[in-house]
Amino acid sequence: MDDEPDLRTLYELTLLREGYRVASAGTLAEALDLLQLRRYGAVISDMRLPDGSGLDILQLLRSTARPERCVVMTAYGSAENAVEALKAGAFDYLTKPVDLRQFRTVVAAAVQTGAGTAAPAPLAGAAAAPAPTPSPSAKGSPEGPAPAALSRMVGDSPAMQSVRQRISKVARTMAPVLIRGESGTGKELVARALHASSHRAAGPMVAVNCGAIPENLLESEFFGARKGAFTGASADREGYVQAARGGTLFLDEIGDLPLAMQSKLLRAIQERCVRPVGSAQEEMIDVRIVSATHKDLAADVRAGTFRQDLYYRLNVIEIVVPPLRERREDLPQLCTALLERISRESGLPTPQLSAQALERLRGLPLPGNVRELENLLHRAVALSEDNTLELDATEDDGYEPTEAELGTMAAATTPAADAPVPMPDDLQAYLDAREREILVKALAENRFNRTAAAAQLGISLRQIRYRIARLGIAGPRGVPDGDGGDAD
C-alpha cells in the first residue's frame, strides 16, 4: 500500500509480471478492509500513510496472529524508522527510491516464508501472490538443516531452551541479530542455527572474524576489488558481502572492527549496496547480517570506540548465550557430545568420563566456557591409558601451592627488567591468540605446508590440522590448502 498512485501502479505492474495477483490500497483504512476479506501471501506497506503508519499494519498482523509477512518501505536516510519497523516484527524493509530488482527479491522471500505457516493465499495484500511452496530446508522440516543445527547446541537447561526458542522465533525475519556471550560459549553455533532455521538456509553462510583481518585489507576483503585496484589485484575478486548473497553474513567479534570500517559497513547495511575497491559502480547486495561479540558494545558506544548508529542497526534483535557456569546441569551432555566428536577426529573408541572426573569438572570455574571444557577433555584423552578418563591432577582447582612454591613461581615469572606482567581478563582468549600467532608464523615460514609447520613445532599433522580448524586459521587466497602430499 502506498498513497502515491504512480508508485502504487509501478509496484503492481512489477509484481503482476512476476505472476502474482495483487490487491492494492492507498490508505490505512482501505488496507484494513482488504485484510478483513481474506489472507494474503505478504503485505507491503509504506511507513507513512495519509491516515496512519505502516506500524499500525504490523500491530494488527501481530495482535490477530495473522500469517502474512510484512515488508515496509521507508524514505531515504530514515534508518530509525527501519529499525523501529524491524523491532515491531517487520519481515524486511526497503529504502525509497525502491530498486525494483531488490523489491522483487524481498517480496519473493516474504511470500515464501509466509507460506510456511499460512493457509493457501490466493491474493497478496498490496503486493504478493500465490505463494510458491517453500523447499523443506526453507521451512525447517525434519529433512532440512534446522533441526540438525539446533541439536548441535547441546543442553536442556532452561537457559539453553530459551536460546533455542528465540532462534526459532527470530530466524523467520530478515532483522539483524546481535549475539552476545563470553568467549567460548558457542556464539557461532547460534549464528549457524539462525541461518539453518531461516528461509535462507539454501544459501551460503559466510563467517568473518572481524579481528583477524589487517586494517588495510578490510575494505577489499568485505566489498571485493577490481583488477588493478592495488598492487597484487591481478583479477576481479568478490568480497565476503558478495559471497554471502542470498544467505547470511556472520560478523564475528564485530566489536573489533575499526571506526573507519564501521562507517562503511553501516552504509552498506542501510543502502544495501557496496562499491568494490577500484570500481565506479555500486552493486546491490542481498544478505542477512548476524553479528557476535564478547564485548559490552553499549559501553564501547559510550567510550566512543563503537558507532552508536551501527550499534542500533545491528542490535535490532539480541540473543544472549549463557556462560557455562549458569548451566552446570548441561555438563554431562556436553562432555558426552564433545568426547564423541574427539573420538571421531582421532579414530579411537569413545571414552567414558568417570563420575569422579565429572564431579571435578563441576567444581572448576571454567572461565573459557565450552572451549575450555573441550581443551580439558582433549588433554584427558591424550593422557588416558584406558577407555575411562581421569582429569590430570593439575586441573584440580582445589590445589594450593605452598609459600615456597609461590616464591619459586614468582621468581621464575618475573621479567628481568621488572616490567609489570599484564593479566588477561579472558585467559582462554589470550592463550588462543598466542597460539594463533605461533601457528600463523610457522605456516608462513613453511609456505603454508602444514606437514612442515607441524614438524617445526614438534607436533603431529593431525594435531596441527585440529588446531588450525579450532582457531579458524585460513590460508591466503591463491595458496593451495595442502600438506605437501604427505599422508597422516
From TrEMBL:
SUPFAM superfamilies in UniProt: CheY-like (SSF52172), Homeodomain-like (SSF46689), P-loop containing nucleoside triphosphate hydrolases (SSF52540)
Keyword Nucleotide-binding appears in the UniProt entry: yes
Record's compositionally biased regions (Low complexity): 125-142
Domain Response regulatory: 1-111
Coiled coil: none
Protein name: Response regulator
One Pfam entry name: Sigma54_activat
Chain segments carrying region Disordered: 125-150
Gene source species: Xylophilus rhododendri
Keywords on record: ATP-binding, Nucleotide-binding, Phosphoprotein, Transcription, Transcription regulation
Keyword DNA-binding: no
Modified sites of kind 4-aspartylphosphate: 46
Molecular functions (GO terms): ATP binding; sequence-specific DNA binding
InterPro entries in alphabetical order: AAA+_ATPase (IPR003593), AAA_lid_NorR (IPR058031), CheY-like_superfamily (IPR011006), Homeodomain-like_sf (IPR009057), HTH_Fis (IPR002197), P-loop_NTPase (IPR027417), Sig_transdc_resp-reg_receiver (IPR001789), Sigma_54_int (IPR002078)
Domain Sigma-54 factor interaction positions: 153-382
GO terms under biological process: phosphorelay signal transduction system; regulation of DNA-templated transcription
